[in-house]
Design a protein that fits this description.
With 92 residues, this protein is mostly helical. Helices cover 49% and strands 0% of the residues. The N and C termini lie far apart (107 Å).
Length: 92
């Protein structure tokens, strides 16, 4: 009696050449640079408020000290000083 032959359910392994491929490059994404908008300076309305309020305070102090003439002098000094300060700090 002959020995039983095993049934082949799978194909016999066949040698294949090995191919080495480089790993794919890793992709990195950069964030777009932020664009920051700044106002070029102070608006004319805000400058007018600064100068006007300083002139008003100067007029009040001058009027309290020397009457009408003191109010005029105080308004001139307050407005002038505020104008100089406004121009010096305008573009900060």
């Amino acid at each position: 009696m002959a020995a039983p032959v095993p049934a082949a359910y799978y194909a016999a392994p066949v040698e294949q050449p090995v191919v080495y491929r480089p790993a794919p490059r890793q992709v990195t994404y950069r964030q777009a640079p932020r664009v920051v908008r700044r106002n070029a300076g102070r608006s004319w309305q805000k400058s007018a408020i600064i100068i006007g309020s300083s002139a008003g305070i100067g007029a009040g102090v001058g009027g309290a000290v020397k009457g009408k003439k003191g109010a005029l002098i105080g308004a001139a000094i307050g407005g002038g000083a505020a104008t100089i300060w406004d121009q010096a700090t305008r573009r900060r």
